[in-house]
Amino acid sequence: MRLSRSFLPTLKETPAEAQIASHRLMLRAGLVRQTASGIYAWLPAGLRVLRNIERIVREEQNRIGAQEVLMPTLQSADLWKRSGRYDAYGPEMLRIRDRHERDLLYGPTNEEMITDLFGQSVKSYRELPQMLYHVQWKFRDEVRPRFGVMRGREFLMKDAYSFDADYEGAVNSYRRMMLAYLRTFQRLGVRAVPMVADTGPIGGDLSHEFLILAPTGESGVFYDAALEEQDWLAQPVDTQSTESLKGFFDNVTSWYAATDEKHDASAWEDVPQERRREGRGIEVGHIFYFGTKYTQAMDISVTGQDGAQVYPEMGSYGIGVSRLTGAIIEASHDENGIIWPAEVAPFRAVIINLKPGDALCDALCDALYEVAPDDLLYDDRSDRAGAKFADADLMGHPLQLIVGPKGAVSGVVEVKCRATGARYEMTPDEAIALITRG
Fold first, then answer.
1. Is residue 344 part of a domain?
2. Are 308 and 367 contained in the same domain?
3. CATH number reported for the structural domain that contains residue 354 in this entry
4. CATH code of the domain covering residue 79
5. Above 90 in pLDDT, residue 14?
6. Number of domains the chain contains
7. Does the pLDDT value for residue 111 go beyond 70?
8. Which end of the chain is flanked by fewer CB atoms within 10 Å, N or C?
């Protein structure tokens, strides 16, 4: 994309309404614009980031055998009345009545709808387990939306739902999803710590929140550094083996991790001093086992192995896709702007032409750009160099490929790494190889 022809409206000044770093930088870098309270339009660069996060989330869901569906944003109120949640949910739910006086709602979540869809098709334990997910917009009418996409009213979410014939199967699905989440966050370039969360009246310990570590996080976090040292992508876990999944899960949950609300000082003392870490975290995911809560309330059963009807055991698993955009920025920025992890950045690199109109500079920039014109941003504007560097840092491109008259004459490209600030001189072929590797 050539910057001179693009819709990337950066701002020099910080908007007055932006209270936290991610909100300020998303507005200044031209990623989003507010259209109503707590509702945002995603501009081209922001949408590219959102799509990259979606892609990684999908790939890791598919990797554990989850199947993607797409459920509508509008749901029939009758489904929620069957589960008993329609009146209990509260004013966060946006209730709608169509021209035929039928009650609808803009879905804040999808347990009822997925349970109904499941019940229409699955009739026997032989068809279990099933794990279904989708990536869809949700709406919750927050009393006080704030902090940009971190706490908006409309948000993009990945929600998944598992159906199993018995408790053991449900636990396996839960453990499988925990592995998928840890892999997902590692690929997104952020540190996410799983914390035991409340399970409500169901009880047990099968509920975990995932908190990205960031200085501006809403919760205090205490955790064992051993959690940081794991390479979840390389973990040799057989996701079809109960024993392998149990070993993985027991290993993860053996390390201390807690928020300040649930901090156990005596247990903290058992963590070796050199491995104790403290910080703050932003919740970006939640996995939850709730048994037969919805299948029983909605009378959705299957034929069991003994011929009797049984209610499938369920779990739900959410990731805030749009919230992750803000959380990643909170965890990865400096005074100059965003520092995108490579896999989620809107562009692989920005090419900065320091002298547009110079034949050698233009030729070298064009040669670099033609390698991957859909994945590179080419700053071909006639602006002064300082403005180009400032925008490049603000937008957070992982690499800056800088081409000036002296370098063009000698066949050299200067490469700056945004994360470290390190600069290198490369030949055009070396720079092209770097772009190709992504």
1. no
2. no
3. 3.40.50.800
4. 3.30.930.10
5. no
6. 2
7. yes
8. C
Domain co-membership, 305 together with 353: no
Residue 358 has pLDDT above 70, yes or no: yes
316 within 8 A of 174, measured Cβ to Cβ: no
Domain boundary among 338, 369, 402: 338
For 186-221, how does the pLDDT look when each residue is reduced to its tens digit (9 = 90+)?
A: 999 999 999 999 876 655 669 999 999 998 898 999
If one counts every other C-beta atom within 10 angstroms of the C-beta of residue 213, the result is 20
What's the pTM value of the predicted model, to 2 decimals?
0.95
Q: Are residues 65 and 182 in the same domain?
A: yes
